[in-house]
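Blinded run. Sample ID left blank on purpose so nobody reads anything into the name before looking at the predicted structure. Input follows.
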Amino acid sequence: MASAAQNSPKAPPIVYTIAGSDSGGGAGIQADLHAIKAMGGHGCSAIAALTAQNSVGVTAVHAPPIEFLRAQLDALVSDLFPRGIKIGMLGTKEVANLVGEVLKEIKEKSNDSSRVWVVLDPVMISTSGSKLIDDDAVHAIIKNVFPYADVVTPNKFEAEALLGRKLKTPEDVQKGAQDILAMGCKGVLIKGGHTLTDENDATSELKATITYAQDYLLTNEELPKEADRRLCDSASGIWLRTKRWDTENTHGTGCTLSSAFATALALGEAKRQDESSKEGATSSIYLSDACCLAKAYVSAGIQQGVQLGAGPGPVVQTTFPSSYEHFPSIIAEPTSDLPAFPPMKAFSAEKSDDDGIPVLGRILPIVDTVDWIRKLAESPGVEDIQLRIKDETDASKIAERVQACQDICAKEGVRLWINDYWEAAVQAGCFGVHVGQEDLLKCKNAGGLEKLREKGMALGISTHSYGELAAAIGIKPSYISLGPIFATSSKKVGFDPQGLGILSKWRDLIPPSIPFVTIGGINTIEAAISNKQAGSDCIAVIGAVTKAENLPERIQQLNEAML
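Blinded prediction complete.
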């Protein structure tokens, strides 16, 4: 079921906030509506609690009559059906029971092909540590609301209250997430992992992460088959890390994050339902992707938070994530900080002759045969080539081809990148390896990332979604790629074309020190120019070179297009 307006591709997705009112304006539905709007949704509200509060604290809480809350929700559902729902403070057992009933009705009116996403922020404890709702309300939320929640977003202290025990280590947080999942929700994000450093018995390794804000996401989604698994799969459990901003102006962080989370999920659902405007990364927003966007949004708000009264100020409601400073990385271990792969510079970066950092070429041809490697390596204007072998599975024959190509490139002074087959690349002494997300996880699990670092080899990583981008940033590669920018027939991909708008977003979210490569359907000079203007540092090309009538001329034209 969808409202008439939602059938228009220009209509923003409708997102409900069922939460409490903050008379101080920094949290509750006031913050929710701002965040929903900033993230690209249309916010509707049903007030489930009224609070008397300011920046110093909460002085009173009042629950509106159940009949009036029901009337608010009935009015919304009858005309403005949601794509996403954020649930905040549910002050009494009766309120929680009613919200559970309404969620059940909404889920029944939707269907598997048009999902309504629900994010629950279990507001239980104030910033000062005071209980905001009684135990009966908590039990009612768990019994009647958790079963409809796609993700629950407690901070560490709320998670401890739900579990009835302290969380002192990353392992405690991970086990706590599993136990909260067992309460009936489909996913859980435990926020505030950095507060583990406040424990008296925190290890030195844990205390060393004090400059990071770290959260843990776990869902009960079915894992993909082993060959298709990725580092960003939330069903495996993922740690997200951003910079920790030294400020006390954090009022409303939980409300803001959960609203941004629900809106991001609604954006993805809306794009998937609209066949006329599917857009790679946006159409691919699921739980881990939405979590990355929500964490980026709230991180930007925390950095810009200002004090308005005598107490802590609210987070600032900003814009859709647009800065690498705030976008999270997905990390393997919350107590470690992996070394970066050998850096490269974009051709357009500021030049310095004495830093020894190689400059990535403006074009990255991708071919599959020794003959094509030879043609390209002998062509002026080619600095880097990628060998992508798809017609061979025998490891010894793959190794032979990789070695033959490396010998040619070494002779001509060209850098050779090997797609996926990192063992053969190490054996042949190639410059670098390029991996997709599935092969990135396989390489990591096989110890390949450590081996590549030991050999001083470069690493490039493909990305298609926000979760994949966060995973790539966590690896600290030599370059990051995005694709397909335009429709392509050269490779079967499970993602819609990204378009130039997503390309521009990616450049803003990738640290400027990491070159940005784009790929997919860049078959003309005009397409190359548009990629460059949108933010690409290097274009990976296949047909643009292999189908060229005059190869040297085409290479020159592509290089000039990327100036």
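Unblinding after everyone has recorded impressions. The radius of gyration is 25 Å.
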